[in-house]
Amino acid sequence: DGLVVSEKEKSNDIDGTVPESELEAEEKGTEEEHPKQSDSNILDISSDYPRDKHISIQRNLADLEKLADLREDERKPCPLCPEEKFKACYSHKLHRHLQNLHWKVSVEFEGYRMCICHLSCRPVKSNLAGDQTLSKMGAHYHCIICSATIIRRTDMIGHINRHVNKGETESRFITVRSPKSSYKVVKESATDVQVLPNHSTPQKTDSYFNPKMKLNRQLIFCALAVLAGERKPIECLDAFGATGIMGLQWAKHLRSSVKVTINDCNENSVTMIKENCRLNKMKVKLNIREEDKVETVGNGEENSDTIEVTKMDANVVMHLKSFDFIHLDPYGSSVNYLDSAFRNVRNLGIVSLTSTDISSLYAKAQHVAFRHYGCNIVRTEYYKELAARTVIAAVTRAAARCNKGIEVLLAVAVEHFVLVVVRVLRGPTPADDSAKKVRYLLHCQWCEERVFQKESNMVEENPYQQLPCDCYGSMPGKTAVLLGPLWSGALFNTGFLRRMLLEAMQYGLDEAQSLLKTLVSEAECTAPKHLSTHGPSDESKQEESGIYIGTPNTSAESYLVHGKRKSEEVLRSAAKRQRPEHSAEHPPFYYNIHRHSIKGMNMPKLNKFLNYLSEAGYRVSRTHFDPMGVRTNAPLAQFKTVLMQYSTPTYVGAQAEGPVHLPGEIHVGEEVPAGTAIKVEEAELVEDDKRGVATAVFTQSYPTHCAAD
To answer: Which reaction does it catalyse (predicted)?
Structure first.
């Protein structure tokens, strides 16, 4: 937007006075001045130099009266109104005019008053012929910060508040940081950071600090602490620093075990990161290329830890330097940075990424998921695990392009984010093995049954035969949909999760502890009561990436040799060790007990239902993806059979939970023929009443091939 300002207005400052000759010249030439405005008088608010404030912005009413040069014996015009709107008058009348029409309706900001202006300084508009003509004159305000013209007073107040939230309090053209008094100091995990007042709802150029992501930061810290226990020191990168809180927590708690680099492409964020380093008494290395150039921020004698702060694109910094640990947390999807992350990450290093584009990952915007991840997904009962497997599939393909394979250590999908932590395995053989685990998924839209396609290049004549259900034969039309490609391997590594749990206990991370306990039981697919922190004695060494890594109850000697080039042969030989033939991988996906509940029946409590499935001979556990989800290797038909057996009719809700007797030909543990209808006949309910005896017999039939809603 432009702003037309006369030469007289440009030359006057806030408290200056206007000579009488200029006022007389203005009075005579008011009508002739505007049609002759040239393009040089149009001021572009996007220019990069500071400029004087408008004459309508004053500190006191007396300063505004000085502009009019009030004299009792002379008629004077209003300095903020054109002559055709307010004719020249004597001082007493002009004083009332300035006070009532301009001063009382002004907007106050830091001691200044932005008075209402009636001059023709609104932006110019072009007519059909291309000539620039002034818009219709009207009352407006001039912003003290950016000199924009706002018509309504309420809009002007909101406009100023937005400037304050962004930290701009002096000039639109030069980014000026707000005083320290306007910053808010937030403390998390013994780390202090300064944030803007609008840290929860920032503008596009502001640093973002989300308190709801505390759990995410704790999980990433535990993963880094586990890696720091394997080899020291490790070089770690926070590619999107924002306020720098994550990198500061790494350096403050792990100290000499890590060399932290915090990067951000925003200059304001880099400045804020340096200020937060000063607040936490850290040293700052300014440039990634100048290793000897170190700036001591704050009292560097108390803490010798050094944090490297860089200002460049995340792809560039990951190409310039190798790291052992990389964390990606951009705004939205991380797919644009995966190639750079895996190109330079060291062998057996860890890459963690947080994806916040949940609208596409949770199948609310399916076309966006296909565009970003090349994956076709639909909304299912297990949509959160589907989102995690979608991200891992994209990670696997990016790593394979760099001749690297991955092992998934952790995959978490909650309300606000999807977190994936993988270990990098260098070499074409791990890359091929990982790429083979990316498959398509057959999903039945009627009964929510699902199965991964077989690993084969041959075209199947009837792919519906791979589904355990018989919906295709009993339901009209096409009942299944092909989803993917998705990651078909395990989502958790039990040994790594146990060590993360120990680190969370050591550092007192309460929020992460409860989630990690659920993840350990989910990874083992066992009930939570069987969970132990250290694991069985004969499994004291957990296998990760084909390499046995000692848990904290083992001796200091482990199969990992500290070092880089010396340990390559040892790592290569260890990676060739074959895994046991019997794999204890957790079953893929889960069932929601509410989704498959029986209409007219009270289902059992979730923990009791887990015990019932376990007694039937199936592996079972709860899942963090869904509070009412059950992860089990039982087929859906058997899942429904057990659920129906231990459900009670709605009208006997006070009766203790017990089994409902099924027909004699169907028993728990046996396969239920697809498409068979199960008839449940309930016992008679007899109620003694003064009037007589009421008997009710209820008989219902439910097909087993679809959920009864």
So the answer is: guanosine(27) in tRNA(Tyr) + 2 S-adenosyl-L-methionine = N(2)-dimethylguanosine(27) in tRNA(Tyr) + 2 S-adenosyl-L-homocysteine + 2 H(+)
